[in-house]
Amino acid sequence: MNRSTRWGLTVAQVSLIALGLMSLTTTEALAKANSNKPTTPSNTSNGSKGANSSNGSSESNSSSASTASTTSNGSSSSNSANSSNSSNSSEPKPQPLTLTSTQADLLVKTACSSATVTAGGVGYTACRGAFEGNDTGAGNPLLTLLNGGLFAAEAGSGTWTQLGKSDSGQFKADEGSTSGNWSLLTGQKLSGTFVLSLKASTYYSAYLFTNLSDITGGFFETIGVSTNKKGMAQGLSHASLFYLEGSAPSVNPNPPTNPQAVPEPMTLMGTGLAAVFGYRLKRKRDQKDGK
């Protein structure tokens, strides 16, 4: 016979009630623990399942995590694609290269340093150009640049003077040629600091020479002045010379082109005596012959 408690329940009945309460308490605790534990989806290359509960028995949670992960990845891909498309659409499209007539004309101008230019076998100190236009004429373009300090860094300050032009007869140059010689007139020598300017087509380049002595000529090329659209040098139109005052160039800007020799007094006397002696000798011969 089972013993009864003070409440009229048997010991067996009390034990069953206690076990039921313990089971209920355990179930609630596990449920609470599962509900509080965060679900962390695991992103893998194949959109893998999320690792969630400690007992690994909740398929619905894994399915939900997988769905969330897939949705998130799909959204990211969509956003990336939209961002990429937006970026591409905002980039400016390349425009075709077009040149104005002036820009196209500049393509035939070359750097002065691409040419060989000498004075007395010595290369130039510095060069500038090519410049568009004429080096001389209205406004004295190159002379203005020289006095404005075109070569001040290499030659220092001072006043520049134009010596002359080859096409005006002040000195000589092989005009019409793409390379050749330039030379001063007979009796001229250039020393100190000077500039040789070469004009070809519609451009000119200036070549500076410094600290030279007794120069009578040199060599030039026009490849550093102007070329045609095939890269061929243009013929020399004319050359110009400028010298820097203060460097004491020993040059006569206006030498006589055809100097006439002045007879000396002793030469005149000798010529006269020879004429008189010849006349007397001829007279004596005529007398002997009976004339």
Overview of the structural elements:
The protein is 34% helix and 22% strand. The protein is an alpha+beta fold and 291 residues long. The chain has a domain at 104-244. The strands form three sheets. Strands 3-8-7-10-4 form a five-stranded antiparallel β-sheet, covered by helices on one side. A three-stranded antiparallel β-sheet has the order 5-6-9, with no helix packed on it. Strands 1-2 form a two-stranded antiparallel ribbon. Strand 1 (118-119) and strand 2 (122-123) form a beta hairpin. The radius of gyration is 54 Å and the shape is rod-shaped. Mean pLDDT is 73; it is low at 41-87 and 94-108.
Provide the structure class: alpha+beta
**Rg calc:** 54 Å
In what order do the strands lie side by side in the largest sheet? 3-8-7-10-4
Overall number of strands:
10
In short:
The protein has 6 helices and 10 strands; from the N terminus they run H-H-H-E-E-E-H-H-E-E-E-E-E-E-E-H. The protein has 291 residues and is an alpha+beta fold.
List keywords for this structure.
single chain, alpha+beta, five-stranded antiparallel β-sheet, three-stranded antiparallel β-sheet, 6 helices
